[in-house]
Amino acid sequence: MATTLITHIGELFTADTEGPTTIEDAALVIEGAHVAWVGPATEAPAADEMVDAGGRAVIPGFVDSHSHLVFAGDRAQEFAARMTGTPYAAGGIRTTVAATRAATDEQLTSHVARLVAEMRRQGTTTVEIKSGYGLTVHDEARSLAVARQFTEETTFLGAHVVPEGDPGEYVDLVTGPMLDAAKEHARWIDVFCERGAFDVDQARAILGAGAAAGLRGRLHANQLTYGGGVRLAAELGLVAVDHCTYLADEDVDALRDSGTIATLLPGVEFSTKQPYPDARRLLDAGVRVALASDCNPGSCFTSSLPLCIALAVREMGMTPTEALLAATYGGAAALDRDDVGVLAPGKRADLALLDAPSHVHLAYRPGVPLVLGTWVGGRPV
Ligand code: NIG
Ligand code: FE
């Protein structure tokens, strides 16, 4: 298999929790789709090809464990109104549902392709993609089929909001025919557990039906209000629960005891003017934390993990190192993946070259496109 040596790396951020997290004056060898070697540049083995990083930093590609990329239309006016005081509400989702139902498969696919390319340019190499803007049997299944063309990490979110009609009948649809049609295209099932969407009992029933169909659970919880969603995730032993903005002490204790990862989505708070989640409180309590974009047309239309890292550092009490770990290793853990998010021998060669000498610059230089190149499975993209 062909080998590539990336050398003269000013700082290699491995995100390796079992070895050194950073190595200065480093090199990395790629063999096929995987990392074969990391270490000091002076000790690097020879390879077929060489890339000179010019003293710049190399980091694992970001693992964005939460996005809603399958949609049509936008809600720029809703965003503009929010900035002058209109609060965010779950009901705005229905606007995107109407536009998504009206779009062709080709339109949805090309839109996702554009957003995935945008993510790649910003260093994201693994992305989870949810359905949730179709909300009919047909539109949820086709949303997932579109998402599946771009990632294995697809999530059925039929329980995003009740689109129309009786809520009880809609839950029956989601847990019955919609789940049947969705399950072949999805790895995960998710519920928006929130005022204006689904309550804890409904979420429990939907996640239970998903588990019986072979899908693993995740949850949107405690985004806009305090409530029982985070505790439900902990009780069910879900791998991750996402948002975690409004947390009581008992929620924090439950997360720590269950090991469920709190995935924080600071782009949402930026775009909704809600308070940022308190990452420091979670980390100090021993809760595992991930950062993700939540890229969607309503609450947060950014695909930028560098922006999320900058916000987490500036507004949420994370150090630059903690924030980058949460967007790489943490995102991978939130998808129960151990093959990505870390640069160590045997892991996938998914990485980004920064036009900066250290990872700290991701937060230090907010808004600056620092990603010079992205490799996925050992190949530049
Ligand atoms: O994760 N919270 C629920 N779903 C999305 C927002 C969807 C929308 O507003 O269109 C979120 O924030
Ligand atoms: Fe979301």
Automatic annotation (TrEMBL):
Please give the superkingdom of this protein's source.
Answer: Bacteria
Q: Which residues bind N-formimidoyl-L-glutamate?
A: 133, 296, 298
* Amino-acid positions noted as binding Fe(3+) in the UniProt annotation, renumbered to this chain: 66, 68, 220, 294
InterPro entries in the record: Amidohydro-rel, HutI, Metal-dep_hydrolase_composite, Metal_Hydrolase
Task: Please state the Enzyme Commission number of this protein.
Answer: 3.5.2.7
Chief location of this protein within or outside the cell = cytoplasm
The record's annotation in SUPFAM superfamilies points to:
Composite domain of metallo-dependent hydrolases, Metallo-dependent hydrolases
Positions of Zn(2+) binding: 66, 68, 220, 294
**Annotated pathway:** Amino-acid degradation; L-histidine degradation into L-glutamate; N-formimidoyl-L-glutamate from L-histidine: step 3/3
Organism source for this protein? Nocardioides caricicola
Q: Output the Pfam families linked to this UniProt entry.
A: Amidohydro_1
Provide the catalytic activity annotation.
4-imidazolone-5-propanoate + H2O = N-formimidoyl-L-glutamate
The Amidohydrolase-related domain covers: 58-379
Q: Which family does it belong to?
A: Belongs to the metallo-dependent hydrolases superfamily. HutI family.
Localization: Cytoplasm
Q: What is this protein called?
A: Imidazolonepropionase
Q: What are this entry's molecular-function GO terms?
A: imidazolonepropionase activity
Needed cofactors, names only, are:
Zn(2+); Fe(3+)
Cofactor details (free text): Binds 1 zinc or iron ion per subunit.
Keywords, in A-Z order: Cytoplasm, Histidine metabolism, Hydrolase, Iron, Metal-binding, Zinc
According to its UniProt entry, the function of this protein is described as: Catalyzes the hydrolytic cleavage of the carbon-nitrogen bond in imidazolone-5-propanoate to yield N-formimidoyl-L-glutamate. It is the third step in the universal histidine degradation pathway.
Q: Where does 4-imidazolone-5-propanoate bind?
A: 75, 133, 160, 223, 299
